[in-house]
Amino acid sequence: MPLLFLTAKNTIDDVEEGFEIGANDYLKKPFELRELIVRIKALLKRYHKESKDEKGFKIGEYVFNMTSQTLEIEGKETVLSYFEARILHCLAKNLGRTVDASELMIAVWQRDDPSNRNSLHGYIHKLRHALRQDSSVAIINQRGFGYMLTIKASSSGMK
Fold it and tell me: Mean of the pLDDT values across residues 138-151?
């Protein structure tokens, strides 16, 4: 969901902090109503385009739908939790590349907190279980760094 900060905080530090904590846009008071409307329309247009682009990740024999948080194979659908879907989305966008554990935690919990490491490991375990029907798909642990989603060449890959 797009996030627009509408605020009287107007220093460059405030703007920077707003974007660092997740803002997609930042509008300082005072502002013209027309500018607010234009910015909202632009955010919604970008959001809908991104949603359409993300609907059908092909991961091996699976189809992963981030919007509905589902993983489908051979007509069987598995509903993922919000956290599982966010982690899989991040790994799928970086297919074949190791994603730093800190980056995954920021994508899911918006912060890199050591207390979330065990939760991350638990969700990775659940994702591995959900992906077990296609032996060409694997989530590999890169010790001390992060995780990588891989697909063996015999599979159709990701689109």
Answer: 92
Distances (CA, A) of 9 to 3, 34, 52: 16, 20, 34
Q: Could you give the CA distance from residue 42 to residue 36 in angstroms, rounded to a whole number?
A: 10
Residues 44, 24: Cα–Cα separation, whole Å: 11
Mean pLDDT of 55-66: 86
Concatenating the DSSP letter of every residue in the chain gives ---EEEES--SHHHHHHHHHTT-SEEEESS--HHHHHHHHHHHHHHHHHHHHHHTTEEETTEEEETTTTEEEETTEEEEPPHHHHHHHHHHHHTTTS-EEHHHHHHHHHSS--GGGHHHHHHHHHHHHHHTTT-TTEEEEEETTTEEEEEE-TTS----
| Average confidence score pLDDT of the chain | 85
- 45-77: burial string, b at 16+ Cβ within 10 Å, e else: eeeeeeeeeeeebebbbbbbbbeebebebeeee
CB 4 within 8 A of CB 26: yes
Residue 152 φ then ψ, to 5°: -65, 150
pLDDT at 159: 45
